[in-house]
Each structure stands twice: as C-alpha cells, then as structure tokens.
C-alpha cells in the first residue's frame, strides 16, 4: 500500500473512510471490505480484500484530481481543502468566529465568504487557488492533490529521473551551495516537477538549508498528530530542532523559551515526546523520501568534486 505500509490495514481503511467522509455505520459491509459477512472470524479484525481497498484509493485520487481542475466551484475547493486538513464545518466556524450554518452554505455554494484570505490561511492553501482553482496555482510545497496507492510508486520513479535531469543541467563552475540553490529553483519554479511530486505522494520543501522531497499523507495518523500546545510553541520546537544537533539540547532550549514566556510544563512537550517525534520523522523519511534526497545530495557533491 505504498506510503501507508506503516499503518495496519484497519488503520489505513479507517483513514480512507474518514477522508472520504463516509459514515461509519455499515461501511465495511457496503464497501465490500468483509468477504463473508455471515462468517465469524477469530479476533476482531475483519477481512480486507485488496480490490475493495483499491476502490477506496481510487476515490481518494479522484478528489486529488479535482484539486488540479480549473472547473471546480468555490464550494468544491473549500470542501477539498477542508477535508485535506481533516476539518469539519464546526471546526472551521470556530476558528473563524462564524456560525456552522454559514460555513455549510460556503461548501454548498449558497453563499461566498467575505473572509476568503483568512479562510485560505486557515486551510493552508494559496489564495488564488481557493479563489479561482487550477493546477497553476498549486505550488511545489502544496499538501493537497497528492495521490495514494500504486499510482504514487510509479510517479516516484519518474520524479527520480526528472530530478537527475535537473542535476545534469548544473553549470560547470558550480559549487555545493550554488548547486543546491539551482536545484531548489528548478523544483519550485517548474510545473512538471511540482506536478510529479504530488503524484508521487509528496511535496518539495526546504527544511533549514536543505531541499527535501517530503511525503504528505492526507489521512490523519491515529494518535500521532495530537498535540496539546499552541502554534507559537510548535514554531519554537521547529526552530530549536533546526538549530540544535541533539534532541536533548533542542528540548532544553524549548523548555527555557517556554518558561520565559510564563508557560507551564503542560504547555510544551516532554523530552520523551520530542524523542518520539524525531523517531517518527526519521522513520517516515527513511520510508518515503530518503532515496530521492540522498540522490540529490550525492549528485550535487559528486558534480562539485569533478568540476
């Protein structure tokens, strides 16, 4: 199941169901996920035929394709962006200080919001894409429009080759920083690379001073995405993880900064939580992006040594 291999099948199917807004009651039987509904099975896990899972993946990919369409309505784009973040109408309404009924009207194209810039910021999508639609407004680091299933494995091979082509274009007198900048410019300005990245199940990002191909899964991880601290604390955590070489040093810096802000120990993560986060991100990088990213780094270094 491509980038979802680290999930149990039950978690994966449940994630697809939630993303597609399918009601839970009767879902497994109606989706054909239980081969023999009348047959008792040992344990609690049902049988999940691959054919039925493939149908769910196809529905996710149809929604991803809508992200790139220039013919969608504002309401459709709003619902797509909302679903990719795992929000419902009540959560959007609460964040923007409006009624849930008003948000429902946005999604049904009954009423167009007067706070489109704020809505785009909340949903983490480009304002022009939310206003007009179309793939040309989706940047290389867009989290919407990624594919799932076998499709992204095929595109990942193509993305690998396309990135090699960019490396081969490097000027003769380039050094490592210039090579990195050249590749970064290509990734963020070329339509074909952004297009391929979404189909490969991820997006291009600059983390610190390094360009990375990062997976983005439009399905919430069970329990792993929960956090009990503010966006301000999250920003502090990200900064200190970039600045410090060890998790302990990063955590001590986070702790000091949070205490200086008058925050209690319940308002920032414990050391063990930060270790778990790093381990999760390391595992994800090894599973999804390490080959492509190592290839970029190795190619840049090799090119610089020979020129």
From TrEMBL:
This is Diguanylate phosphodiesterase. Gene3D superfamilies: lambda repressor-like DNA-binding domains. GO terms for molecular function: DNA binding. It comes from Novimethylophilus kurashikiensis. InterPro entries: Cro/C1-type_HTH (IPR001387), Lambda_DNA-bd_dom_sf (IPR010982). It comes from the Bacteria. The lineage of its organism: Bacteria, Pseudomonadati, Pseudomonadota, Betaproteobacteria, Nitrosomonadales. SUPFAM superfamilies: lambda repressor-like DNA-binding domains (SSF47413).
